[in-house]
User: Fold this.
Amino acid sequence: MSTLLQIENHIPFAAPIRYWIEIDETTLDEMVKQSRQFERAFLAWETVRKQRNPFFENGTGFEGYFVGTCHSPEEALEAILKLNRDILDRIHRLHRMDYGFQSRLMKTLTGDIYDPAAMQEWSAQLGAALGRLRAGIYYNEQASRFQTETYRSVYHLPLIFYRQKNDAIEQRYAINFGSPRGGRVLVEPGLLKPREQDAWLVAEYVGRFGHPLVRQFLRSDRT
Assistant:
């Protein structure tokens, strides 16, 4: 039997979202209402990242797509690192001579700064990567079944609750929390090679651009 794991924290990129709520003709409630269409995907991502992870104790959210093709945490780690190295390589090719923008991209990724163009770039890269991964599961019965089970597990979860508090927007959401899968390992980024550390950093943080309010913010021409 599973129970609900309650998670409370601040949403990513709360500052620009609050800014646009204040200057635009909208409210947090209206923005939340419009973002509900993205919630199940986000809760499924968080479920894989935090609980249903088949490979890692500190997951990224990508792992479900590699069920059936990767048969050990080591194989899954290499696949996820390659996926995110490819994202970095595409970014470097697209912005080869714009070293300032490349720097802003990495600082935006980790939330150290807010750069509208960088947010759009990461969102596009995440969407493209997930599109390729989703196409692959049509030929991978195990991954397809894993995704179906994951979405089924979040179907009856409560909606995300938001509230504004001081300069932040807080959220509370729940995921099903059952018995953790055995055989999972803890990824220690400090033990990876430098280029692999950058790829793992992307894997860890790029999912924040799939947050429902961030997606709604980016699609509303506010940036």
